[in-house]
Amino acid sequence: MFDFLIEGFGVALSPLNLGLAFLGALLGTLFGALPGIGPINGIAILMPLAYTLGLPAESALILLAGIYTGAEYGGRMSSILLNVPGDAGAVMTTLDGHPLAKQGLAGPALGLSAVSSFVGATIAIIGLTLFAPLLAEVAVMFGPAEFFALMIFAFSSMAVMMGKDPVKTAIGAVLGVLIATVGVDGGTGVMRFTFGMPELYDGVDFVVMIIGLFAISEILLMLEHAHRRDADDEMPPLGRVFVSLKEVLHCKGAMGRSGLLGFIIGVLPGTGASVAGAVSYTTEKRLSDKDGTFGKGDMRGLAAPEAANNASAAGSFVPMLTLGIPGSGTTAVLLGALMLYNITPGPMMFTERPEVAGGLIASLYIGNIVLLALNLPLAGVFARVLTIPRWVLVPAIAILAFVGVYQLHSDLTAIYLMLIIGVFGYLLRKLGFSLAPVILGYVLGGLMEQNLRRALSISGGDAGILWQSGISLGLWIAAAALLVLPWLVPKLLAGRSRRHAG
Amino acid sequence: MRIAADRLLGLALIGLAAFIAVQSLQLQVPFSYEPVGPKAFPLGLAALLAALALVLVFKPGEDGEWPAPALALRLLGVLGLLLVYALLFTRLGFIPASFLVVATLARLFDASWPKALVTAALMAAGSDFLFTEGLGIGLPDGTWLADIL
């Protein structure tokens, strides 16, 4: 049953892939540590280079996944030291992390967060190893109708979980799906929304889309943030960098629970590290905040979100590898990267391409150990990254974005398109949209339409096929429940308490 | 009544949905074996988009923070600069174009002139070396200079 893992370790332990796992971990930690550059930005900027180097699919994936998991480690640095989350997953880390730093415990806080990141990630990688092959066996039974229902479920779970405004999350996803319809229609050869531009016949290029949406819009946002100081003071001194065993043991419950919770949230399609961090923090506060110390510098309040956001990163690989449905915005980008290699992840991945699935999972085990080894002693060095001024960072991002897009197409049209998408992304972010739904919609849109049309051609046009099987019906009901319950439950509870009162 | 950003967005999205619907209806499908052609999916999405946009028009959220005029001008400056970079990228060549753009960009992000110029020189030459020598990526030499020489 675990043949894929044995083969995977064979792949991941090759010198090239070991080096890439190490490089990914290092770069990822740096990207995570830099405020504003999260895992998606890091991957967007480096993905074109991975292609240029001509890496095989599994090696490219190992590099990019290393950046992803590394960024979840690195995101905590600026949360703890500057009270500015390094990425969306590290928002809750500021709540207890920064107060600890202000009490002169910045070093131990960094150490503890590295250990809890390790624990959370380890729990989730083991979960991934055990759970993914089982899910793949179930997923073999999926036909087009089931996949279509699954995507509806993914979008509705995302609408409820992600962002403040479900309507905007839904709009973002629809816009993403619409962008995916651009180009020659595979079924009939009809051109859709190409406006006679040959560059658009193959659709909006994935790299152009990702770099425009994330890197270019980030440049514009950084200019705004440069004029609004949200960091509340100078970087506090680190103090001793090591965390004591006693402090770690004090947090073992918080780490274990949050690791499990983060894994489960990561597996749910469409929800990422930010949700995992928030849910685990509030859960841990409810369970163990007896003296009201959470939010004032409680070690457990730091350990919980850090364990959870790293666990969710590993967990989000489960639906991506087994169903081809990304568990988070970042895995959506990784899925798109795999599709560029003509690999569409799905239930057959573990049997047909075990070197990719197994190699990735094995590299996560290795990367996790590398990350702990890097992050414990080198916390001070990584913290230095925070002092890189924006006037160095921004031109560097611009150069990487331009070279990345140019060398893929040697074509200026792609660069103009990237800039247009960048402005579009900036406006969306200013209007309170999260970009992850857009990317998820863009990556899933083509598959969604294909599966819908395939299902309907099997049934001769009868839409009933979409909910005929037990699996698809169950997914539709689950999707509907997700959309209705958050709205219904508070009303029911309010009604009941009124009856009790009356 | 103040016009919230969300209301404008909602109206713009309804316009977009209408545009998509019209475009989809105009698609000429030569022949089709399947019951659902390439029109249905975008049409359905346009309808969904219009419905969601209506929610925004009638229940707009908070008006977010928008940049003050001076900052907006700088944002346009950065954007214009990126456009200039695109225009110069192949014509002037990678190193000179990058030097100019990095120096100006650094100035827009509040670096002093000496810092901006040194950063630009190091970054333009360094990235050219890294990309061409280290990674084997072909970068444009510039057509204008070649013409003159």
From TrEMBL, chain A:
InterPro entries registered for this protein in UniProt: DUF112_TM (IPR002823)
Where in the numbering of this chain does the DUF112 domain appear? 18-440
What top-level branch of life does the organism fall under? Bacteria
Annotated TM spans: 12-37, 43-68, 109-132, 138-160, 167-184, 204-223, 260-281, 323-344, 356-376, 388-408, 415-445, 465-489
Q: Which residues form a coiled coil?
A: none
Name the UniProt key words of this record, in alphabetical order. Answer: Membrane, Transmembrane, Transmembrane helix
Provide an example Pfam family for this protein. Answer: TctA
Q: What is this protein called?
A: Tripartite tricarboxylate transporter TctA
Q: What is the lineage of its organism?
A: Bacteria, Pseudomonadati, Pseudomonadota, Gammaproteobacteria, Oceanospirillales
TrEMBL record, chain B:
User: Where is the chain membrane-spanning?
Assistant: 40-58, 70-88
Mind listing the UniProt keywords for this protein, alphabetically? Membrane, Transmembrane, Transmembrane helix
Upper lineage: Bacteria, Pseudomonadati, Pseudomonadota, Gammaproteobacteria, Oceanospirillales
Start and end of every DUF1468 domain? 8-140
**The organism sits in which domain of life?**
Bacteria
Quote the protein name from its UniProt record.
Membrane protein
Recorded source organism is: Halomonas halophila
Which Pfam families does the UniProt record give? TctB (PF07331)
